[in-house]
Amino acid sequence: MDLHLEGKTALVTGASRGIGLAVARALTAEGVRVAGAARTITPELAEVAQTAIAADLSTPEGAASAVGTALAEFGGLDILVNNVGAGDLDHMGLGGFLDSDDSQWHHLLNLNLFSAVWTSKAALPSLIERRGAIVNLGSVNARFPSTGPVGYSEAKAALVAFGKRLSEEFGPQGVRVNTVSPGPVGTGLWRDPDGFGAQVAAANGAPHADFLTAMPATFGITSGRISEPEEVAALIAFLASPAAGNITGTEIIADGGIIKTT
Question: What is the pLDDT of residue 201?
């Protein structure tokens, strides 16, 4: 399927690994000139992106700098993918609300919500001019606020609402805004031996390998497996493209069937 993306420009945040890197690869394969922003530039990002931007997207200065660099490189933006999220392990405690300090809330909200606010504000003038698209990366955790680190589900729920706000305000000006909310995805967050998945496994007294094997059943995934980054990236590329020209203001769940309600 031709997504009609040849020659378009895009900024992908959190592009050094995982879903963000998969999105950068998917868009590049469609002929998009991609700027990938991340706190650390990995060799994989440097290889796939036309421009790799080192920026701390959890700060307003870093987010504005990333957009400014992409605009200077390309002369304008057609696509913004607000993918950066999750958080550093030392800010992803597994305790309850009373165990979580303000620094955890600030870190998770800045990275998972405000980074998208800041980049969108900086990119929208160009996106309006080019009648472009924004795709935000949400999470099914927004619907399960009692699971995961305190502050993460709340940030993702707010991100979904933020995307809807933008779609309503800027849709009449030709800018489409959508959110993709995956369930667990096979990135380093879950699979790395020192990642969040290993932390959860240890907290439950289970070997990491056994935890990964049990994840589909534990999470109630109908398909029997977690998603892969490339699958989420393909959906994001479609939503960013003219092929999805009348899809806006939506949240698309890509969770393998975790959510059982209509």
Answer: 79
Mean of the pLDDT values across residues 159-184?
98
Distances (CA, A) of 162 to 155, 206, 224, 237: 10, 37, 32, 20
**How many Å apart are CA 176 and CA 260, to the nearest integer?**
28
User: 166 is written with which tokens?
Assistant: 């933008």
140/198: higher pLDDT: 140
Query: Which of helix, strand or coil describes residue 58?
Result: coil
What is the Cα–Cα distance from 67 to 52, expressed in whole angstroms? Answer: 12
Residue 206 has pLDDT above 90, yes or no: no
- 77 has which bridge partners? none
- The catalytic position among 114, 118, 152, 190 is 152
CA gap 168, 146 in Å, rounded: 29
Between β-strands 33-38 and 176-182, what pairing exists: parallel, antiparallel or unpaired?
Answer: unpaired
Helices (H), 98-195: 102-109, 115-130, 152-170, 188-191
Contacts of residue 91, Cβ cutoff 8 Å, sequence gap at least 6: 103, 104, 107, 108, 149
Q: Is 152 a catalytic residue?
A: yes
State the residue for tokens 């007294």. 205
Confidence bin at 198 (pLDDT 50/70/90): confident
